[in-house]
Specification:
It is a single chain. By secondary structure, this protein is of the alpha+beta class. It contains ten helices and 18 strands. Strands 11, 12, 13, 14, 15, 16, 17 and 18 form an eight-stranded antiparallel sheet that branches. Helix 4 packs across helix 8, helix 6 runs parallel beside helix 7 and helix 7 crosses helix 8. The relative contact order is 0.16. Pfam families: Rieske (PF00355), Ring_hydroxyl_A (PF00848). Keywords: 2Fe-2S, Dioxygenase, Hydrolase, Iron, Iron-sulfur, Metal-binding, Oxidoreductase.
C-alpha cells in the first residue's frame, strides 16, 4: 500500500538559492515537448467532480498535451476513464466537452458503436474487416482515481502515488469542507492566455504580491495570508477573513453575508483555503463553495485555463449570495493575475532579464521549480542548450545524477 510521500510542509531554509528557473525554459519549444510527455502525461490531472456526470451515459472530455480524455459513467453507475479516440481511425468518440449518451457511444466518423463500459458493441459493416475480434477493439482505458468526489486521470504511468496518498496532508481540508457532497453551480469553464504555463503557476504559487496587486484579496484577508510548500511540489495557502468589515463593495458585502456553517470546524468558518496539486491543479475551499482550476499548455506561449465552482447541495439564499460575491472577488483577482503573468513571461525575452531573485515569501515558487528540475534536470542549466540538444542534454544530466 502506498503511503503519503510528504506529510509536513518544507521550512524555508536560512540560506537558499533564490534563483528561479532560467528564462529560456519558458520559451523553448524542445523543452515544451519534454514537459508534455514527462510532466503532463504522467501526472494526475483533475477531470471534474462525480456530480458533473450524475447519470449513466453522462460524460466529460478534456484535451491535455496531445492526449484526449473521456470520463463517463457506465450503465452500472461506475465512472471510468478512456482515451477519447475510436479504435478504428482515431476520431473523437465524444466530440463535446460535456454530454450524454443514450445507452452507447457512436463514433461520428464511421459509426463504430461502444458500450458505456468502453467495450466495442459493433463496427459499421463488420464484414468488411475480415476476422476481427470485437474484444480486442474496446476503448483504451486511462488511469482514473476518485477522491472525495473529485475525478483524476493520468495518461501514462508516472511518479505520483494514488491521489489519496499524494494529497494525504490535505485530507482534513477535503473532509471538513465536505468536498464529496458538492454539486455543480454551472459548467466547467475554459479560457486561454498568451503565456507559458509556468508563468501562470509562478504568479499563483506565492502570496507576496497580494498586498500590491490584489486590492480585493488584501481587503478580504491579506493580513493573515500564509503559504506552505511541500517537497513533492504540492502547496497550500490559508487566510482568515472578517477581522475588518472591508472597504470594497464586494468584500464588505461578502464579509457581511458569508455563512459560518456549524458543520465546519470553528477554526475554518472564516477561512479561504487553497490546495495546490503538482503540476497545475488547485482546489479552493470557502464557507459556501468548493472550486478547482488548472492550467494546460497549448504551446510554449499559450495556456488553457480550466475550472469549475461547486455549491452546497442544500444551498441557502445567503450562501448563494455569498457565492456570487466571492465570484466577483475571484473574477477581478483572475484578471489581475493574467496581467502579472503576461508581464513576467514577456520579460524573459529581454536582454536585461537576469533571472529571478526570490523572497522567503516566494519559497513556494522555488518549491514548484525544484520539482520540475527533479523531473527534467535540463532545467538546472542557466544558459540555454541548442534546441536540437535539449532532449539529449536532459538525458545526459539524468544519467549522471546519482
Amino acid at each position: 500500500m502506498n503511503r503519503p510521500l510528504v506529510t509536513k510542509p518544507r521550512p524555508v531554509p536560512e540560506d537558499w538559492d533564490r534563483r528561479g528557473l532560467p528564462g529560456w525554459t519558458y520559451h523553448s519549444k524542445a523543452l515544451f515537448e519534454l514537459e508534455k510527455r514527462e510532466v503532463f502525461q504522467t501526472h494526475w490531472q483533475i477531470a471534474g467532480h462525480v456530480s458533473d456526470i450524475p447519470a449513466p451515459g453522462d460524460y466529460l472530455t478534456m484535451d491535455i498535451a496531445d492526449e484526449r480524455a473521456l470520463v463517463i459513467r457506465g450503465a452500472d453507475g461506475v465512472v471510468r476513464g478512456f482515451h477519447n479516440l475510436c479504435r478504428h481511425r482515431g476520431a473523437r468518440v465524444a466530440a463535446e466537452e460535456k454530454g450524454h449518451c443514450k445507452g452507447a457511444m457512436v463514433c461520428p466518423f464511421h459509426g463504430w458503436v461502444y458500450n458505456l463500459d468502453g467495450t466495442l458493441r459493433g463496427a459499421a459493416r463488420p464484414g468488411s474487416f475480415g476476422d476481427m475480434d470485437r474484444a480486442d477493439f474496446g476503448l483504451k482505458p486511462l488511469d482514473l482515481d476518485i477522491w472525495h468526489g473529485f475525478m483524476f486521470v493520468r495518461f501514462r504511468p508516472g511518479p505520483q502515488p494514488a491521489v489519496r496518498d499524494l494529497l494525504a496532508p490535505f485530507e482534513r481540508d477535503f473532509t471538513d469542507w465536505r468536498a464529496a457532497d458538492v454539486l455543480p453551480s454551472g459548467t466547467i469553464v475554459t479560457s486561454e492566455i498568451d503565456v507559458n504555463w509556468k508563468s501562470v503557476r509562478d504568479v499563483d504559487n506565492e502570496g507576496y504580491h497580494v498586498a500590491m496587486a490584489h486590492p480585493a484579496l488584501q481587503d478580504l484577508y491579506g493580513r493573515t495570508y500564509r503559504d506552505l510548500a511541500f517537497a513533492n511540489g504540492n502547496s497550500a495557502s490559508y487566510a482568515t477573513f472578517g477581522d475588518t468589515p472591508g472597504r470594497l463593495w464586494s468584500v464588505r458585502n461578502y464579509v457581511k453575508f458569508a455563512p459560518a456553517p456549524d458543520w465546519l470546524p470553528a477554526d475554518k468558518r472564516k477561512v479561504w483555503a487553497y490546495v495546490g496539486m503538482f503540476p497545475t491543479g488547485v482546489f479552493i475551499f470557502t464557507p459556501e463553495t468548493v472550486q478547482f482550476y488548472q492550467d494546460f499548455p497549448l504551446s510554449p506561449g499559450r495556456t488553457l485555463q480550466r475550472g469549475a465552482i461547486y455549491r452546497r447541495p442544500d444551498e441557502t439564499r445567503q450562501e448563494r449570495l455569498s457565492r456570487y460575491l466571492a465570484y466577483r472577488i475571484d473574477r477581478e483577482t483572475g484578471k489581475e493575475d493574467v496581467q502579472l503573468s503576461i508581464w513576467s513571461n514577456e520579460s524573459m525575452k529581454s536582454s536585461a532579464f537576469e533571472g529571478f531573485h526570490l523572497s522567503d515569501l516566494e519559497f513556494a515558487v522555488k518549491n514548484h521549480h525544484d520539482q520540475l528540475r527533479r523531473i527534467l534536470p535540463v532545467m538546472r542549466i542557466q544558459d540555454a542548450p541548442a534546441e536540437d540538444r535539449v532532449c539529449e542534454t536532459n538525458e545526459r544530466i539524468r544519467s549522471a545524477t546519482p
